[in-house]
Amino acid sequence: MRLENCSIRGRLALFTGVVVGLLCILFSTVLLLTINKAATRNLTKEVTAVGELTAYYVDRGKLINPLPPIPQNLIRPVQVVDPQGKVVAATRDLQHQPAMAHFTPKPPHRVASAVVCHSIFTEGRCHIVVAQQVFHNGDWTVYSAAPTIPFYIYPGVMALLIAGTVIFTIAVAYGARHTVTRSLKPVDAIRAQLDHIQSTDLGRRVPVPTAKDEIHRLARSVNQTLDRLEDVLEQQRRFCSDASHELRTPITAIRAQMEDARLAPDDIDLAKLCDAVLPSVERLQSIASGLLKLTRLDAGVPLERQTMDLAELVAAELKNHRLNKKVVRHLATGVTVSGDRVRLSQLIGNLVQNAQRHAASTITITVRRADGDPRFPGETAELEVLDDGAGVADGQREMVFQPFARLDTARSRSAGGAGLGLPIARRIAESHGGTLTIQDSPHGARFVIRLPLSP
């Protein structure tokens, strides 16, 4: 099985087991080396003690062959070599054998040690050999030896460390897998719940674990994302429904007029038919154009920015409209903004058209500098469009910025509104880093645009 195909539990357990196993092997190796070094040091001291005892008898001329006199608990391979290099005494296991080593202590030292291999020892193992010089009618040398200690010290110690490493590695790997399995149970529950959530049932939410950990935050983020997704899909359904309703009315009117003309072609005046159909076509064109503009704004089409005076832009836009209501202007000069002139002109035009549809007699347009908005640092450019109409209730102020939303459907249709002007205006303001809201006013509807001031 390839590693990338394993679950997180398996990979983490494998990684933990390998790391713990390597650490245990490293620890065991260091421990064995430390114990071996200490045991070798102690063994060298014992071998040296045996040689010192033999050297004592050599120094007093009490040398006998075979050796001892040496206590039974200290018997080691020992040889005594005279100044001519001849072995004159040895323990029973080295009788009639040549010298086990040929090195001697270097002055001023009287004792030297070395590891000797492939010598006269019958075991075939390497030995620790200690050479001691004795001055008795010349330089005599006493060699004492003992087999070197193997790396693993004792087989039991090696077996214990191997068993401990295996058991500890398995236990840690199992514990890691068990811990990860328990930790990932909420993730499995989240995944299972997400698998059951369909586009027709977005009201379901994933379970949020009680522990305040990363999975808790993940579950909350998933639920917040589902909330936003549900809102977006609900807006999309409502938008499709409203768009279908808006498009159906002019299409139905055109169809009815065309069917009437088809039934009685001789009684139809072509000019009157065109005059009757043209308003519906214009309405369809207006809706299609508005939907295209909304789509482009939502897609984030780049802006062609330039610096302009907001008062001059408002004045120029008012000249392009046939105003059927009285317009009061309070346009402060020097309020400059940076943005797309065409889109900002469309924003102003949409608000003016909306005010004309709903104003009783007067529209007041104000351009000024303003501050006090926590969403903007320092001063902002503010454009206010106020009409003296019926106004907008507090609970409906956000609804008017939804596509095809109307507070008075019959009156809006008769006035020619498609229900897309205010949503487009808000999208334009937001694409310029600003806001479009409805504020309180003594009478009528007060639309307020705030845009960042240009340096």
| Biggest sheet overview | 5 strands, antiparallel
| CATH superfamily heading of the largest domain | Histidine kinase-like ATPase, C-terminal domain
Strand order of the largest sheet: 2-1-5-4-3
Alpha-carbon distance between the two ends: 63 Å
Predict the CATH topology of the largest domain: Heat Shock Protein 90
The ordered H/E elements are HEEEEEHHHEHEEHEEHHEE
CATH architecture of the largest domain: 2-Layer Sandwich
Q: Based on helices, strands and strand pairing, what is the structural class? A: alpha+beta
Shape: rod-shaped
Number of continuous helical runs: 8
Write the layout of secondary structure elements.
Elements: H1 8-59, E1 78-81, E2 87-90, E3 111-116, E4 127-135, E5 139-147, H2 155-196, H3 214-263, H4 270-298, E6 306-309, H5 310-319, E7 326-331, E8 336-339, H6 341-358, E9 362-370, E10 380-387, H7 409-415, H8 421-431, E11 435-439, E12 446-452
Parallel strand pairs: 7-9
Antiparallel strand pairs: 1-2, 1-5, 3-4, 4-5, 6-8, 9-10, 10-12, 11-12
Can you describe this structure?
There is one protein chain. Helices cover 48% and strands 16% of the residues. The protein is α+β, with helices and mostly antiparallel strands. It has three domains: 8-147, Beta-Lactamase; 198-301, Signal transduction histidine kinase, dimerisation/phosphotransfer (DHp) domain (Helix Hairpins, Orthogonal Bundle), CATH 1.10.287; 306-452, Heat Shock Protein 90 (2-Layer Sandwich), CATH 3.30.565. It has a five-stranded antiparallel sheet, with helices on one face. Helix 6 (341-358) packs antiparallel against helix 8. The longest helix has 52 residues, at 8-59. The protein is rod-shaped. 22% of the residues are buried.
